[in-house]
Design brief:
alpha+beta; 7-stranded mixed beta sheet; elongated; YojJ-like (1; 262 residues; 7 strands; 11 helices; transferase; 59% helix
């Protein structure tokens, strides 16, 4: 009877506990939704469900086999979801620091001034996209908040230049030596160009997606980054984040997305 009463002993900290778990599950869902990790998670959940079924049916051989898998379940989850766990921890750490700095920035300069300053950064990118859309110039621009030299500089040409419409257009010029690969932008600078990026493993993407789209989606799956893709065939602009992509977006929508994420 006492154990039953303890079960219903719900206080403020119990409510906080439930809310925190719900928040963590929601963040996990956002990280893996639409990615190959979602299918892996479903597979692991089915194996766990199968274990409890065969255990209840007293099927000793399968129970033993699946039981050994369950014993190393935590290690298996860490190995399989290492990219998602890394991205989640980076997201938590960044929100704890940058959000506070952004609040101070808006407090001292005012919201309007902060938005004007951000618009000055993204305007050259939007203008370059307008020009490349008209000329059907393919482009892949990746935005990262923390530029990891070990990840990007090993497969890129270092640029470290101010963001400029003409520079972006020159990099992606069809006959230029740097047009293959991606441009990496961090802060107020173009850090590197001609970067070779990992391709996505997602098999559910539209058939018309080429290597440029798959690389743009792949880099947002493996890192805390966003990608802007201009199609060489159609001039269509796409925007990728967390392994998911928005296709054929307008310049007004592009401005909102960049103002929010960049």
């Amino acid at each position: 009877m006492q154990s039953v009463l303890k079960l219903f002993d719900f206080n403020l900290f119990s409510a906080l506990d439930v809310l925190l778990v719900a928040f963590l599950l929601y963040q996990l869902y956002n990280l893996i939704r639409g990615t190959i990790a979602a299918n892996i998670f479903i597979g692991l959940a089915l194996i766990c469900l199968l274990y409890f079924v065969v255990k209840a049916l007293d099927m000793k051989l399968l129970t033993t086999i699946l039981g050994n898998f369950m014993n190393v379940g935590i290690i298996a989850v860490i190995v399989v979801f290492q990219q998602e766990i890394r991205r989640f921890l980076v997201l938590v750490g960044r929100n704890a620091s940058l959000q506070r700095n952004r609040a101070w920035w808006r407090y001292f300069l005012g919201k309007n001034e902060a938005e004007k300053d951000n618009y000055k950064r993204i305007k050259p990118i939007i203008d370059a996209c307008k020009s490349m859309k008209q000329t059907h110039t393919g482009a892949l621009i990746v935005f990262v908040k923390d530029y990891d030299e070990q990840i990007y500089q090993t497969s890129c040409e270092v640029v470290d230049a101010k963001i400029s419409k003409r520079l972006i257009e020159a990099i992606f010029q069809k006959n230029g030596p740097l047009h293959d690969g991606a441009v990496i932008i961090s802060g107020n600078k173009i850090k590197s160009a001609s970067c070779i990026l990992p391709l996505t493993d997602n098999s559910d993407l539209p058939a018309q997606f080429g290597l440029r789209h798959r690389a743009g989606i792949g880099v947002t799956e493996a890192n805390d980054a966003t990608a802007l893709i201009v199609s060489e065939e159609t001039g269509e602009i796409s925007y990728a984040k967390h392994g998911r992509v928005k296709m054929n977006i307008s310049f007004a929508e592009l401005e909102k997305l960049l103002n929010k994420d960049f």
